[in-house]
Amino acid sequence: PKSADNSIRLKSLNANTDIATLARKVVEECRLIHPSKLPEVEQLLFYLLNRKKSGNDKREKHSPRDLAPFEGMELDEEANINRIDHYVELLYEDIPEKVRGATLILHLARNPDNLEELLQNETALGALARVLREDWKQSVDLATTIIYVFFCFSSFSQFHGQVTHYKIGALCMNIIEHELKRYDLWQDELQKKAKEHEKAFKKYQGLLIKQEQLLQVALHLLLNLAEDTRTELKMRNKNIVHTLVKTLDREDEELLVLVVSFLKKLSIFLENKNDMAETYAVEKLARLLPCKHEDLLNTTLRLLLNLSFDTGLRSQMVQAGLIPKLSALLADESQRQLCVCILYHISVDDRFKSMFAYTDCIPQLMKMLFDCGESPMDPELISFCINLAANKRNAQVICEGNGLKMLMKRGLKLKDVLTMKMIRNVSQHDGPTKNLFIDYVGDLAAQTGVQEREEYVIECLGTLANLTIPDLDWELVLKEYNLVPFLKDHLKPGSAEDDLILEVVIMIGTVSMDDSCAAMMAKSGIISALIELLNSQQEDDEFVCQIVYVFYQMVFHQATRDVIIKDTQAPAYLIDLMHDKNAEIRKVCDNTLDIIAEYDEEWGRKIQSEKFRWHNYQWLEMVDNRAMGDDGEPFMYGDDGEPFMHNGDILERPDLFYSAGTEESRNTQQRLNLFYSAGTEGSRNTQQRLNLFYSAGTAGGR
């Protein structure tokens, strides 16, 4: 059987509608509804009206930011959806009528309830798109109004397809580009008309207001369409970033909020971020800070935060003078979090750390830290402070007044790892700040003897290890807090995390600067424990370097020198490490072995022999490389293809030996110097140099 359902579409239902009259009209026109159902129809209409209101409220909360009405939108009549055909006819008249027709349609489009019905009227939308495409250069008001109509559709994702169908986005890009060029021409004309400046300026101001309204509507529409990343990519291909950055020169705050918001959305993609770097967007954004417009300030800071993840853009921020500007904004509680995050990113680079000392940044940060009391601190805040403390001048500012005292109080009382990490960074700097720690040595040493979290003990021990203070009695500290057993127990591989073991090694190196402490270490058997640790951690350069440094400190003292040289195989390990790939390890090894060679003849001969063997190996390897070309053929010809000897005898070419003029002669002279140079000063004798001459290294020699 045929269905008896019938849909009734209401063309208009708003607060001004007479529900009773409309209900009677529905019953009269629909023969399927019995007149007795009139009260139910009225009730349904009330329900629909209330549902629309609540729906509008929700839509307003979640829809993109609406544009404020602008000059030229006023009408002397109320737009009616039933007269849409008449409004479309106006689009075929002259420019004033076209503007009026477009404005009437805009008034309808500003009501979301009318959008679906307008969308079904392809004639209206087609006419609007055609007029915009053909006449936008003739009237700014016309272009602004029509784009505004399509903007109303673009505010809802489900209508984006229809807006794209009429190619409104591409047209808006062209219009914006044209208007920016016009703006440049206006600027030039304004400068030329210096004599008539006041009159020209008033005209310019009027044109500028209309142009900025047009730009605002067009950019807002593009921002809505950019919700689809494929559409956004098309915009990028049309240089949307360059266009937006150029628009940052404007003064209108509402337009700037829109432009910065658009750039913020684009900045999450690498290609767009690179475009912003090329166009020096940061320099133009710096001009906007600080500003009284809350939305503009907040949006600009969020964009800068996105850009601050890039090293090159952070450099641009520093060059644009953003460090003092952002430091001043820390006083604004509503923007503080964003400023801290941006400044934290800048502080990651060592080149810029020192610049913070010459602003009001550090005192404000210290106040923010102490205002936290015993409650947890924001991770961005304490991380920023940790970075700043790694700079010597910053550390001095941090310690001014009761800065260090307050930090130590918080760190020790709350067992706060991050606060202790900041303190540890402060302690690494030589100078007056290091001496301030003498009062806290006992408190720090006491943290190692109790069952604390490992990461907390690492920071306390690391701070102690940094305190290379001549006046500090380390022997008393070691005895009073019974640290030697603790240090020895934590040298065993696997006894703790590698980070803690490494700090123990560094601590031993620090206390070994003291003669009596070094003797205590030697008697406790720590040297053999260090050698065992060296065997297990030989692939870790940091471990190797620190252990070798401990040996270097210990060979300075008579008691520990004899233990290292006579009772351990430490010198043999040092000889093996002489030629390590790491330059720092080689340097510490050479210095330590030089001291050992000076005090022990037997090891001195072994060290000398190994150095000669290494030099000899390097010489033979160089000869092999010089003797063979890239293709494996002997190196018999020069760069110009001529034989080096010119069919002569080498003994008849003394210039090879004595001339310093050509590169070949300099290389030869350097090779001769290798033959005759002494390996360690005052230690190589003639017989050893002869051994170097006659050793059989190359196949040719053998």
UniProtKB/TrEMBL annotation:
One of its GO terms (molecular function) is kinesin binding. Coiled coil: none annotated. Gene3D superfamilies: Leucine-rich Repeat Variant. SMART domains: ARM, KAP. GO terms for cellular component: axoneme; ciliary transition zone; kinesin II complex. GO terms for biological process: cilium organization; microtubule-based movement. This is Kinesin-associated protein 3.
